[in-house]
Specification:
The structure is a homotetramer.
Chain A (H helix, E strand, L loop, with lengths): L2 H7 L4 H23 L2 H8 L3 H8 L2 H23 L6 H18 L1 H13 L3 H27 L6 H22 L5 H21 L9
Chain B binds a DNA duplex (21 and 21 nucleotides) through helix 4.
InterPro entries (chains A, B, C, D): DesT_TetR_C (IPR054129), Homeodomain-like_sf (IPR009057), HTH-type_TetR-like_transc_reg (IPR050109), HTH_TetR (IPR001647), Tet_transcr_reg_TetR-rel_C_sf (IPR036271)
Keywords (chains A, B, C, D): DNA-binding, Transcription, Transcription regulation
Pfam families (chains A, B, C, D): TetR_C_46, TetR_N
DNA sequence: GATGAATGAGACTTCATTCAT
DNA sequence: TATGAATGAAGTCTCATTCAT
């Protein structure tokens, strides 16, 4: 084997190898789930031998965590980019939701790994996920607060609403995975309506209470 | 002869053993997830040897499916019992949500198995789950239709809203599992407000549209 | 359950139960082979519970040995009945072979158990089989001796020829199981020709020797 | 570093390990039969861990099939090498039989695996075996045809005789396994006489028919 | 006499992980 | 750097066999 040949197939810089591996891992985890995914398949898909994976990214658990971390960061970045702070609050929310569903639609595998797989594995993995959710909630909260404090809604209430909204978005995205015919804008619009009108009602003081109980 | 000894020696009828096994399985699947759960642990917790499990409930997959089926049936029954059709629509929804969150709160393990575990395993398991969801959606739909048709909202729209509502409830329940301090009534109330006000807006024709895009 | 009912389905005399069980066992062993046969299936086919089998016929190994013994005895009896000592030697052999192939053809399962299964299990089972073969060989030998001593062939040679003949018959029967279209008389005739002519040659002193080696 | 240590540590090429494993498997299958043989014992005897066996040779069934294939190929090669086509027909047959019994005598384990085990397992395994037998029969047939057509025996009859001869050889070999005192040449000679004289009779038109029936 | 209930033991198979080259 | 070779440990499942009724 000549030097030239060796260079052609091997000795890629570490950074490149890591990306190859993570790409393959996301795909495999998404396809088969965390447990059914085998390191053998990851190494096959990545075109990299198993010892390399262990050398670069550690154990299977570590590898999965790295996947979640990378995908979560990308998703959050996409959403944050969608929200432009110079717009009015409702348009910010609208664009945020739009960016979210667009990202999920374009990266189904990422979302599957992030939400379905990570959520069903206990313990270590949830951390990354909870952290991302916390960031998302805070993003929405600052948005709601701007509207609510102008009106009369107290702090604290907004955060729980933000949580509900984020949860609803996650759930809707998850549902969407199984119903892919609906266009992404329609999904976003559906949620926007429920949220904005409902929220508007709360802000205006129109709330519902059990008539008798 | 001590109680312990009697327990070890008694030949219980099949029906009883099956319940014991299912109880144990729900607990174990809930604690460790489908894949990390071992039949050994199920048999330990059930106080029954593994061969009995295979004889009565079949393979691990069969056992899991049986768990889902039983728990889903119980949950639906609880919700249906909560909805009393002689009440006005909003109170029906309120009681239905109340029953739902109460059940989830009282049977966290059941819910974990049902929602988190079953959803993250592909294929065969989803069927049972989808079926349950279909029933739930139809339950809510009949409810919304009664209100909507009196007013002006068209058919079809209600079903998608029902789906959104069910999804939101699931998501909220799931979130609640990780935030157990909130009392169940508060959670139900939160969702009821969002839903009823938002829904009311739609019925009244107050909808949101992007101002410019 | 009335006394009448109990009597109708249960409490058969031991002898009958044993036959039921053996019949079932022969069939199951023949169908699946000794190892793949399960006591469960035997008990199902026999319509008798497993504890009965153990009570009446002992362990799986014992049961198998009992099968071999019964079938071997029947086969030998059938062959012996075919050979009528008042006939000339060649007709005796002819009728013996005829009875043998007829029996095998009519009791394929028995033969499968006897020959294929018993032969592939080492140790204890071979005993029964070897014994049967010894009896068969002796049967043929007495026959050949009557012809040979009239002529010039020495003792000892006949026995080895008898062994070859029995072996050839077994092998042919086994082959026949996989080629069932050939009628039983044709199979018998084929062997008879080879044997009688070859044997006749030996008796007459026409033998083959390597021309040079 | 002792020999033992080197053996434990050396990374042998796949080819070598496969041979080791097959050797061990033939021995173990031969000793205990297909079903009683455990993969654990194969791995022990081979000096290789079980996962290697599965990686290289597949399941237990695959492993067994591989054994049969290898041994059958070797046996056929040995017989074909014995038959030298420049000799007269009887000498060809004689040398072929000689090679056959010599091989069986020298590789008792191979033969046990080939004939006794493979024959008693149904289905997939028989294929390899049937194929080998077909080749052997055709080998013998071409031989007989050369003699028979010179004389008056029709086609088709030779093939069935070839089949009988092959079957007789198999059966005799099998019998020999249980009577190992007889020297291999004696066994070959015994069969040669029966076959050649009997066959000669048929060629000459001396056939036997029941005198009355 | 008869059986449903029950299990200890062991089989096959897979996988994450690590050497030795 | 890169990998083929190798394995300990664990999991699912089956089966002959025996109690307790």
């Amino acid at each position: 084997m000549t030097v030239e040949e060796r260079r052609r197939v091997k000795r890629l810089p570490r950074e490149v190898r890591e990306r190859q591996i993570l790409d393959a891992a996301v795909r495999v985890f998404s396809d088969h789930g965390y447990h059914n995914a085998s390191m053998d398949e990851v190494s096959d898909v990545a075109g990299v031998s198993k010892p390399m994976i262990y050398a670069y990214l550690g154990s299977k658990e570590d590898l999965f965590a790295a996947c979640i971390h990378r995908e979560a960061t990308q998703l959050l970045a996409a959403v944050a980019a969608g929200v432009r702070t110079e717009l009015p609050a409702d348009m910010q929310l609208w664009h945020g939701l739009g960016a979210f569903f667009e990202y999920v639609g374009a990266h189904r595998e990422s979302w599957r790994v992030l939400h379905r797989q990570a959520i069903s594995q206990g313990g270590p993995f949830s951390e990354e996920l909870l952290d991302m959710r916390r960031q998302a909630i805070s993003l929405v909260d600052t948005l709601l607060v701007r509207v609510a404090t102008k009106e009369g809604l107290g702090r604290g209430a907004t955060e729980s609403l933000a949580a509900a909204l984020v949860g609803a978005a996650e759930s809707l995205a998850d549902w969407w995975l199984d119903n892919p015919d609906v266009p992404s804008r329609a999904v976003a619009s559906r949620l926007m309506n429920l949220a904005w009108i409902g929220f508007g009602g709360l802000v205006d003081g129109r709330t519902w209470h059990p008539s008798a109980d």
